[in-house]
Amino acid sequence: MVESGTPAVRKRYVVGITGASGSVYGIRLIEALLASETDVHLVITEAGWRVLKEELGWNTARRHEALEAVFKEQLEARRLVFHPNADIGASIASGSFRVEGMIIMPCSMGTLASIAHGISDDLMTRAADVMLKEGRKLLTVPRETPLHAIHLENMLTLAKLGVKLIPAMPAFYYGPQTIADMVDFLVGKVLDQLQIDHDLYRRWGDEQHGAKSPDHHRTH
Q: Does the bond joining 146 to the residue before it have cis omega, within 30 degrees of 0?
């Protein structure tokens, strides 16, 4: 029985970053979730760390320090919790640990295939498997081109299970001026699926809400 006056648990999501190109998407998503007062549990694959080094210049030889360089305050406050991918006994590996859902952004074809076929041999795929068995939200942002039939069949398998697939496909109708604008668009599409309010891009037909000023610039 829950006693009256028990403080509400802050919403929390699992964010996964794999070795697909587009690690900036995952980092920007974490920033947006934290800004929305949502807590984040983060897991990064070995290939994901490689891409963070190659694309964002992170010093991945000192992983915790690399995270602290961007999220020091949130790590200290435990609003952002990092789990090594090899830690199969981490909290997010259990369905009894309550989270709203999981977003894998970007999602490699290897990770997507493992999830589609129930192979959960590391924390990333185990956490995703937990989302499926518990009926929680699982969003994947696949980043690959071109796609062959196996990729498409795996995506169809996940779609039939209720997984949301949000391919890393930028739009141009809102007039992006920078790469950061295109990153924000995709992050905004993920937040839409999570029903989290944001103003990361201008919506079609809405000049008043969700619009950015013309001089909006952000560097990652």
A: yes
